[in-house]
């Protein structure tokens, strides 16, 4: 029988999914409209569109999986069923982390200024560097997700069923092989997170150094474009904090083997579900073009 926490989680997931998909669709539509108007899409815009598309797929997959596991918990007996869901979800989760890293690397190369030869070369070829980075990230994330077919087992805890012969969701355990667990933690989570943190540190260090130089120069403290750079730095920091919190929540759920038995684990489930929506909302509020379009739409509705 489905527990209250899972009923609440499922209802919350459906509502949150609708909101999150609308946010992501808004990002995509605004960029398509700009493209049709002949303004062209920058590399940053393309990354945001890719992030929005991935978030839509991720939210839909999470809700489909939640629905199937709640309504048909016995499906864990069928490897093809949960393997297919695992491949898509793992790919979208880890690719989302790498997209965040790619966005931060883009801002770092665009904003930061260092005299190192390697950094200068990367900065001069920023479009090719970030594009190839995301392509490799997509291939790597897909490779990790495919390996889950052979390294993840979903089975009833203690190999027992309830009296009706139907597996209960609370009796389900997720078993990962040690080698696959290390691979996913290192390649899927730690590496993109470290690249993201490094990009943020380099960007903030460059901005602070530039501000200090301009402050004590005769030119005064008028820095053209500095406000935009600071805003970009904020866009880098906020998704990273969200990413770190999501990772902690995901680990808590895996440790509990999806047995949502206390308030802390319920909060972890809720945060995992709202991750794509929160990421899309941060992008909308942090991007001046998207934020302005959102404000114009809200003002138009008020006048109706």
Q: In one word, what is the shape?
A: globular
Structural class comes to mainly alpha
Q: Give the C-alpha Rg.
A: 22 Å
Helix segment tally? 9
With strands numbered from the N-terminus, the spatial order across the biggest sheet is 1-2
Outline the biggest β-sheet: 2 strands, antiparallel
The fraction of residues in strands falls at under 5%
Gap between N and C termini, in Å?
47 Å
What is the mean predicted local confidence, pLDDT? 76
Helix content: over 70%
Order of helices and strands: HHHHHEEHHHH
Task: Let me know the number of strands.
Answer: 2
Spell out the key features of this protein.
304 residues; mainly alpha; two-stranded antiparallel sheet
Q: How would you explain this protein's 3D organization?
A:
With 304 residues, the protein is mainly alpha-helical. It is built from nine helices and two strands; from the N terminus they run H-H-H-H-H-E-E-H-H-H-H. It has a two-stranded antiparallel sheet. The termini are far apart.
What's this, in brief?
This protein is mainly alpha-helical and 304 residues long.
SSE blueprint and pairings:
Blueprint: H1 4-36, H2 43-71, H3 79-111, H4 117-124, H5 126-151, E1 152-156, E2 172-176, H6 178-215, H7 226-255, H8 263-286, H9 288-303
Helix pairs in contact: 1-2, 1-8, 2-3, 2-8, 3-5, 3-6, 3-7, 5-6, 6-7, 7-8, 8-9
